[in-house]
Amino acid sequence: MAPDGQILAPNVYDAEPIPDAARLEIERLLISGDLFRYTAAEGAPVALLEQEFAEMMGSRYALAVSSCSAALFLSLKALDLPRGARVLIPAFTFAAVPSAVVHADCVPVLVEVGSNYRVDMDDFAAKLPGAGAVLISHMRGHTSDMDAIMALCDAARIPVIEDAAHSLGTQWAGRKIGTIGKLGCFSFQSYKLVNAGEGGILITDDPELAARAVIMSGAYEQNWKKHPGLQNSYMLWQNKLPLYNMRMQNLSAAVIRPQLPEVDARVAKGRAGHDRVAARLNDSAWLSVPPALPPEERAPDSIQFNLAGDWSDAEARAFQAAAKRRGVSVQVFGLSQDNARAFWNWQFLGEMPDLPQTRAMLMRACDVRLPTRLSEAELDFIAAALVGAAEDVKG
């Protein structure tokens, strides 16, 4: 706030704060030098994090790793898919998702996404036959129709991995996102609900998938004995799977663990902040926030909205500039150079399929961070700036 009482443009790029308890634990670890997750016989911070996260999610097994991308990759490898297997992914996701599929020696199959940021179920059903797996990204926390997706995949016996990097705390028909498919993967990168700078975790109820993922994450020699249960499965896979060394270290776990009790409060505040801004934007004739599907209870830390009506590329760029002048940075996914969420920039995939629905959405879909720490006055500032910028261009 300025000295005269005016609300200044809020800083939306600072990550969630680190609790004091984490600082004390980090100091203890630095003094001890005990940073490797397998140094201690038991009770290492990473092992405690896995136990606590599994309990929080209601899952049997959790494996903490270096990133959500690592969790996605290990999930695909744990499924033991044949080389060249087709893996369906939404065409609206982050470049790390198709990258994980490529690293796992599989072939990404991009599925159309509609203007509501969810998977187009007709295109999904058409591309599903013959797939080895489905990797559903709940991109920016938007949940596709999981009932329809799971019904089709279960009938075809095709396993589903959930990329829940943006969806910690989201529920679908009372079920926690990340627990609906065979495996769920979460991110602790700085811009997520729980901030460790980097880090990820996967969860599953399947003991064989858990054992394979643990071994491949880098539980060399007999280190798998420091994971609870599954001893027979570990012995089966010992030395028979490659080690990718994607382990989480104790410092990261020390930062994450004190934040887990804060998840519910952050979810509630994030949802309230999102809905407060969304209501203001939906009052504008030029802006539209797509509603969630009815079974979804969101846990947002950002807001996405569409430029409604007839906008040219020049007008969309003018909107970005007008919002910037008012103190708010807006990213239009398809107009931001080299944006890692625009599928046509994933040149490592080779020839791109024609995805007109997703392309049209990305060219008019806007993205603004709304960290849970923002006050109501700061949220209102952002909403007013966006509505005002649209009026500057179209009013």
How many β-strands, per DSSP?
14
First-to-last CA distance: 29 Å
**What is the CATH architecture term of the largest domain?**
3-Layer(aba) Sandwich
**Helix-and-strand structural type:** alpha/beta
**Gyration radius over CA:** 22 Å
Main CATH class of the largest domain: Alpha Beta
SSE ordering = HHEHEHEHEHEEEEEHHHHEEEHEHEH
**Total count of helical runs of at least 4 residues:** 13
- Name the overall outline: globular
Determine the strand fraction and express it as a percent band: 5-15%
CATH fold call of the largest domain: Aspartate Aminotransferase, domain 2
The overall pLDDT average reads 94
Largest β sheet strand count, sense and barrel closure? 7 strands, mixed
Fraction of residues in H or I helices: 25-40%
How many domains is the backbone divided into?
2
